[in-house]
Amino acid sequence: VYDTVPQRSGLPYLCIAEIEQAVREQVGREWWDVRLQLEVWTAADGRKNCMLALERLQALLHHGTMSISGY
User: Fold this and answer.
1) CA separation for the pair 51, 59 (Å, rounded)
2) Most buried pick, 18, 20, 36, 69, via CB within 10 A?
3) Overall average pLDDT of the 58-65 stretch
4) pTM of the shown model
């Protein structure tokens, strides 16, 4: 997943196109509501590879462990 795609990046990849965010508050609590618009880039035509990439992302976000350097 890229914000800005590095030159010569291999396909497939996901790029963050738009971000919307809002701070929500409730008595004694605060959280962020964040919405991302993703672009999926693949070498193949059609939606199949796009959907496979999104399924993989969903699996990583909900069932995997991710590390982000610097955090």
Assistant:
1) 12
2) 36
3) 87
4) 0.62
